[in-house]
From TrEMBL:
Keywords: Repressor, Ribonucleoprotein, RNA-mediated gene silencing, Translation regulation. This is Protein argonaute 1-like. Residues 111-120 have a biased composition (Pro residues). The gene is LOC111282787. GO terms for cellular component: ribonucleoprotein complex. Belongs to the argonaute family. Ago subfamily.
Length: 1057
């Protein structure tokens, strides 16, 4: 279940703007005097004699001094500048030596290290242990029979990890397998904030007390289509329900499983079923297909344990029982509508809307059964997706190419576009009267229709397609210059002229939509809360679950009212601004505030800057005026910003981007180096539609020249709106190392479990390529706070990894160096060192916000990534294991919250949504685990989607209030706007960083013209990658090309903003 990562259009307003990426962006740029201490020198964490991982000469230091990836192995100093290290060993899962002496893979003795490599520990606690995790007996000293971990199952890998015992502490050992992992129990409910009632799109489902049976189904000959399987089973039920099935109405998953409410009158039985094809109007005899169906008792689904789980008396959710109920409730809508994933679509569920280029949107609904505190609940939400319009193929192609196609012949690019859009699409023929045979398109012919011939008999007599259609059907082909559609297989291709084909209705379009189509689809899906709630209610009534014969058969009763849920509105935090401004601090109102009368708490310095203009519409004088206004706004906002550029603005054409950037940078540096100065900023004016220009520019600036840049679109240059300039100033400030604002509570050290000791907050995310891009790598990004106690500056690193791999491969890794032996590095280690350099302290607590993990991957991600965090810490210093809290952040869910009374002005924001700070941790949340929904932002348009936070590991013993308030307060520290944002900023920054790194891959233009790359593990600043293993089969294990390295001075700032 690897989810498609969101690369959706950023929501409007505060959370918009172009996107971003990579490198250790920890520290400050030129520091204004009022800023907190900069990077400390190399004070090691351990006595100088054994100093290894922390201090010394490496890390994010002065410009050009690289962050070393070298490792502490066997107690000798290993940090020497920025070495790239040797290749990482194959199989990057596990098998690492520990920091206390390293370890060759498989456990051979190492010079200066013990013969049995003591592995870093995975245990929950350095405080009294977490009740939610069942203590496991410590494994015995089994290290001598240690196998290389990458060949051992995950459970065994974890069992092999030794258990660290600290004096007087009950340390939680590593669970030996995912089965024995217990996510933390809810530490009680929160009580901070103003209590209120909200409604949720969850409908209570009464747990049936039926005796559920599961049967295995084997259909021969086997067919891939669920539709055919269902047709076979439908026929079987029709014929034999009364006689052989004991009057039971089974629910079928379309594959191998059948479920009944009570036993069938046999243990195993064979049936013969005949399917007759639909009448295609030809008047010819219809094809009959024989199937053998064997139904065999497999198991009894246990609803009793589901009941215990819902009451909190059992820890594991009985997935099978939930699955049965889901299948039962999907049975009826599957026959009525077009199922897509967990959603159902139909042209009857709302108006179809054209999306352009031959696509249209269909309305539908999402439906899923979920275990919650109130018992079972059916989550129902509205949804829309793209379908191919059922047009004649000629009309489809006309729309696709957006021109009159008969006027000029098709170019190669046109052919590629048509082929890509139509491959796999089902069409029916229209030239044979009522006979509507259906075919699936496999490709286009390379020749025009008039040139195509095919053999008509054994002797190889050839006939042209044009002649054949004229003689056989009396059909005169008009567009003979066009290619034909190829249908059937490649060995025996059939040729069909486009003009005799029509697209069959009800085919979902699963490829990537373009910007215009996304905008059109968003318009359709964007509904005010009140409308959405009304449509959800209408859907539930329309689905009439009380009349659903399958629900009746299985005894499932669904409530028809939205769940009323207790919620609380957390207060907004006070924000600190600079003391020289008129307003020194500020209390946001309804999730927003502005910069009027305020100055940035740490204004950055821009002494030397230049401007390049790529827009033909913008004259040099306009560019000059715009830059002057922007510089003035930066100065007013609290930055030290020189009003005059180093060189006057220059205009250039987009195709000259590389040449002009390098020339202008060189000219500016020549002028500055004489005075021993650096270039601080590049301002760029872009055309409104700039294609790949933005990405090329960011790649060249950040991985080649080593300069931060601020791009501005032409339309904004002409408008010169004050609000826009103020927002751009916020972005520029953090790119040059400043801070915009900090939490008052952070400065006065009042944040529970953060302010009391040095704490580092990580954000991590993986973005996957769009559907249809089969070879592009996935990109992982990790950011980490670099200031304490303020926690507002985040350094970032990125790496490319195997296609659609969700586990972050580069968190910790070891490789063999010919001189130093086993050395280690990775993103976590690098960011810990950079925190140490920036603050002069080592983190004594780690909070890790992980974005974009679906429920099915919780165990996998936790076991793999927590292990990597442990190993990274242990590689820096023996026994260094700061307590970790690991929280998954989810936005891709379907829970929506509505105000109890839409007309009560005090309970909604201006968009009609629930108020920012609304938190829910009861009723619709998990029966026993520590999770909550938090709507931290004010809505702009549509219905707000609350973020869902689920704690998978917690050694810091957060109370519900402490974690909910910290998360909500952090949402007010997002650097790019004066609004609270919808997900916690470290997770948001990781998403921006991963998105930015897509631009760093060398574009190999695919036939869609989109960026793909058969590239990449490794990342800006790290050595070559070996095959990171994917959860997606063998093809993904090909080595991925590393991303180009970020320049050191770029790494140190929030360049991805």
């Amino acid at each position: 279940m690897v989810r498609k990562k969101r690369t959706d259009v950023p929501s409007a307003g505060g959370e918009s703007s172009q996107s971003h990426d990579t490198g250790v962006g920890s520290g400050q740029g030129p520091q204004p005097p009022q800023q907190r201490g900069g990077y400390s020198g190399g004070r090691g964490w351990v006595p100088q004699s054994q100093q290894a991982g922390w201090g010394g000469d490496s890390g994010v230091g002065g410009r050009g001094r690289g962050m070393s990836r070298q490792q502490y192995a066997g107690g000798s100093p290993e940090f020497q500048g920025r070495g790239r290290g040797g290749p990482i060993q194959q199989g990057s899962r596990g098998g690492y030596g520990s920091g206390r002496g390293g370890g060759a893979r498989g456990g051979g003795p190492l010079p200066g290290g013990p013969s049995r490599p003591p592995n870093p520990e995975l245990h929950q606690a350095t405080q009294p242990f977490q009740a939610a995790v069942t203590p496991q007996p410590a494994p015995s000293e089994a290290g001598s029979s240690f196998r290389p971990l990458e060949h051992a199952p995950l459970a065994e890998q974890l069992q092999q990890l030794s258990i660290q015992q600290e004096v007087g502490q009950a340390i939680q050992p590593v669970p030996p397998s995912s089965k024995s992992v217990r996510f933390p129990l809810r530490p009680g409910k929160g009580c901070t904030g103003t209590k209120c009632i909200v409604k949720a799109n969850h409908f209570f489902a009464e747990l049936p007390d039926k005796d559920l049976h599961q049967y295995d189904v084997t259909i021969t000959p086997e067919v891939a289509s669920r539709g055919v399987n269902r047709a076979v089973m439908q026929q079987l039920v029709k014929l034999y329900q009364e006689s052989h099935l004991g009057k039971r109405l089974p629910a079928y998953d379309g594959r191998k499983s059948l479920y009944t409410a009570g036993p069938l009158p046999f243990v195993s039985k064979e049936f013969k079923i005949t399917l007759i094809d639909d009448d295609d109007g030809s008047g010819m005899q219809r094809r009959e297909r024989e199937f053998k169906v064997v139904i065999k008792l497999a198991a009894r689904a246990d609803l009793h344990h589901l009941g215990l789980f819902l009451q909190g008396k059992q820890a594991d959710a009985p997935q099978e029982a939930l699955q049965v109920l889901d299948i039962v409730l999907r049975e009826l809508p599957t026959t009525r509508y077009c199922p897509v994933g967990r959603s159902f679509y139909s042209p009857d569920l709302g108006r179809r809307q054209p999306l352009g280029e031959g696509l249209e949107s269909w309305r539908g609904f999402y439906q899923s059964i979920r275990p919650t505190q109130m018992g079972l609940s059916l989550n129902i939400d509205m949804s829309s997706t793209a379908f191919i319009e059922p047009l004649p193929v000629i009309d489809f192609v006309t729309q696709l190419l957006n021109r009159d196609v008969s006027s000029r012949p098709l170019s190669d690019a046109d052919r590629v576009k048509i082929k890509k859009a139509l491959r796999g699409v089902k069409v029916e023929v229209t030239h044979r009267g009522n006979m509507r045979r259906k075919y699936r398109i496999s490709g286009l012919t390379s020749q025009a229709t008039r040139e195509l011939t095919f053999p008509v008999d054994e002797r190889g007599t050839m006939k042209s397609v044009v002649e054949y259609f004229s003689e056989t059907y009396g059909f005169i082909i008009q567009h003979t210059q066009w290619p034909c559609l190829q249908v059937g297989n490649q060995q025996r291709p059939n040729y069909l002229p486009m003009e005799v084909c029509k697209i069959v209705e009800g085919q979902r379009y699963s490829k990537r939509l373009n910007e215009r189509q996304i905008t059109a689809l968003l318009k359709v899906t964007c509904q005010r809360p009140q409308e959405r709630e009304f449509d959800i209610m209408k859907t539930v009534q329309h689905n009439a679950y009380h009349k659903d014969r399958y629900a009746k058969e299985f005894g499932i009763k669904i409530s028809e009212t939205l769940a009323s849920v207790e919620a609380r509105i957390l207060p907004a935090p006070w924000l600190k601004y600079h003391d020289t401004g008129r307003e020194k601090d500020c209390l946001p109102q309804v999730g927003q505030w502005n910069m009027m009368n305020k100055k940035m708490v740490n204004g950055g310095t821009v002494n030397n800057w230049i401007c390049i203009n790529f827009s033909r519409q913008v004259q040099d004088t306009v560019a000059q005026g715009f830059c002057y206004e922007l510089a003035k706004m930066c100065y007013i906002s609290g930055m030290a910003f020189t009003p005059e550029p180093v060189l006057p603005p220059i205009s250039s054409r987009p195709e000259q981007v590389e040449k002009v950037l390098k020339t202008r940078y060189h000219d500016a540096m020549t002028k500055l180096q004489a005075k021993n100065k650096d270039l601080d900023l590049l301002i760029v004016i872009l055309p409104d539609n700039n294609g790949s220009l933005y990405g090329d520019l960011k790649r060249i600036c950040e991985t080649d020249l080593g300069i931060v840049s601020q791009c501005c679109l032409t339309k904004h240059v002409f408008r010169m709106n004050k609000q826009y300039l103020a927002n751009v100033a916020l972005k520029i400030n953090v790119k040059v190392g400043g801070r915009n604002t900090v939490l008052v509570d952070a400065i006065s050290r009042r944040i529970p479990l953060v302010s009391d000791r040095p704490t580092i907050i990580f954000g991590a995310d993986v973005t996957h390529p769009h559907p249809g891009e089969d070879s592009s790598p996935s990109i992982a990004a990790v950011v980490a706070s670099q200031d304490w106690p303020e926690i507002t500056k985040y350094a970032g690193l990125v790496c490319a990894q195997a296609h659609r791999q969700e586990l972050i491969q580069d968190l910790f890794k070891t490789w063999q160096d010919p001189v130093r032996g086993t050395v280690s590095g990775g993103m976590i280690k690098e960011l810990l060192i950079s925190f140490r350099r920036a603050t002069g302290q080592k983190p004594q607590r780690i909070i890790f916000y992980r974005d974009g993990v679906s429920e099915g991957q919780f165990y996998q991600v936790l076991l793999y990534e927590l292990d990597a965090i442990r190993k990274a810490c242990a590689s820096l210093e023996p026994n260094y294991q700061p307590p970790v809290t690991f929280v998954v952040v989810q936005k891709r869910h379907h829970t929506r919250l509505f105000a109890n009374n839409h007309n009560d002005r005090h309970s909604v924001d201006r968009s009609g949504n629930i108020l920012p700070g609304t938190v829910v941790d009861s009723k619709i949340c998990h029966p026993t685990e520590f999770d909550f929904y938090l709507c931290s932002h004010a809505g702009i348009q549509g219905t707000s989607r609350p973020a869902h936070y689920h704690v998978l590991w917690d050694e810091n013993k957060f109370t519900a209030d402490a974690l909910q308030s910290l998360t909500n307060n952090l949402c007010y520290t997002y650097a790019r706007c004066t609004r609270s944002v919808s997900i916690v900023p470290p997770a948001y920054y990781a998403h921006l960083a991963a998105f930015r790194a897509r631009f760093y891959m060398e574009p190999e233009t695919s036939d869609s013209g989109s960026m793909t790359s058969g590239t990449a593990a490794g990342r800006g600043g790290m050595g070559g990658g070996a095959g990171a293993r994917s959860t997606r089969g063998p093809s993904a294990s090909a080595a991925v090309r590393p991303l180009p390295a970020l320049k050191e001075n770029v790494k140190r700032v929030m360049f991805y903003c």
